[in-house]
């Protein structure tokens, strides 16, 4: 059965794998090009985008991911992963450059400016979703063909085109499975009814 991979070079890997497993989705850590075989989707996790960009090149995964993407692999970048997928990085170099967005790194300030919040994301779930932002970027512009999923103040926090999802925040660090379910659906993968309603705003 086709599953979803999580790029496992650096950053928040295990939490993504666990969220996928809770949904009954086959979840594979991806460390080399051959690990992409048979996958319907790939999550590029949060971490440090300059470090991840270098590692992707060192392990020759940048070309391999671009090639699989052209063959239909769906992609989701969380935080640093979204930076790597963006075609335009304010004051920085693009990485994989596959989705037509502009993104500004560290746009809230230092690590101390990290925060949790809750938002309605109607395309993704009927109930409000908890969000955690860690030294997060802001998506500052969307090109044609890219849709906003969540706009907050002066930036987009989540957006997508037909093949790529980008989130400035980290759904894998919250109890909610909503974004993982949404990405699995985008990949054409059915999910089990998991313990979705497992958090209340007061508990988190
Ligand atoms: N600030 C990091 C970067 O620019 C991203 C932070 C994250 O992924 N939580 O790479």
Automatic annotation (TrEMBL):
Cite the EC number.
4.3.3.6, 3.5.1.2
| Listed InterPro entries | Class_I_gatase-like, PdxT/SNO
Q: What keywords tag this UniProt record?
A: Glutamine amidotransferase, Hydrolase, Lyase, Pyridoxal phosphate
What GO molecular function annotation could you give as one example from this UniProt entry? glutaminase activity
The record ties this protein, via PROSITE patterns, to: PDXT_SNO_2
Catalytic reactions of this protein: aldehydo-D-ribose 5-phosphate + D-glyceraldehyde 3-phosphate + L-glutamine = pyridoxal 5'-phosphate + L-glutamate + phosphate + 3 H2O + H(+); L-glutamine + H2O = L-glutamate + NH4(+)
Presence of keyword Hydrolase: yes
Residues that hold L-glutamine according to the record: 47-49, 105, 134-135
The record, for CDD domains, names: GATase1_PB
Q: In which pathway does it act?
A: Cofactor biosynthesis; pyridoxal 5'-phosphate biosynthesis
Annotated SUPFAM superfamilies: Class I glutamine amidotransferase-like (SSF52317)
User: How does the record describe its quaternary structure?
Assistant: In the presence of PdxS, forms a dodecamer of heterodimers. Only shows activity in the heterodimer.
Q: HAMAP family in the record, alphabetically? A: PdxT
Q: What does this protein do?
A: Catalyzes the hydrolysis of glutamine to glutamate and ammonia as part of the biosynthesis of pyridoxal 5'-phosphate. The resulting ammonia molecule is channeled to the active site of PdxS.
Q: What is this protein called?
A: Pyridoxal 5'-phosphate synthase subunit PdxT
Annotated organism of origin: Thioflavicoccus mobilis 8321
């Amino acid at each position: 059965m086709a599953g979803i991979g999580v790029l496992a070079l650096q950053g928040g890997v295990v939490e993504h794998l666990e969220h996928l497993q809770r949904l009954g989705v086959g979840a594979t850590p991806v460390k080399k090009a051959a690990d992409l075989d048979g996958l319907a989707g790939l999550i590029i996790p949060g971490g440090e985008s300059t470090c991840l960009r270098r590692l992707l090149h060192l392990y020759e995964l940048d070309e391999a991911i671009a090639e699989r993407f052209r063959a239909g692999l769906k992609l989701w970048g969380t935080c640093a992963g979204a930076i790597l997928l963006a075609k335009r990085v304010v004051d920085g170099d693009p990485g994989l450059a596959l989705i037509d967005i502009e993104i500004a790194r560290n746009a809230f300030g230092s690590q101390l400016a990290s925060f949790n919040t809750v938002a309605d994301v109607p395309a993704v779930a009927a109930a409000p979703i908890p969000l955690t932002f860690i030294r997060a970027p802001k998506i500052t512009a969307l090109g044609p063909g890219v849709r906003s999923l969540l706009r907050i103040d002066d930036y987009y926090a989540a957006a997508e085109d037909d093949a790529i999802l980008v989130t400035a925040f980290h759904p894998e660090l919250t109890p909610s499975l909503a974004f993982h379910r949404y990405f699995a659906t985008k990949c054409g993968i059915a999910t089990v009814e998991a313990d979705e309603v497992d958090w209340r705003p007061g508990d988190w």
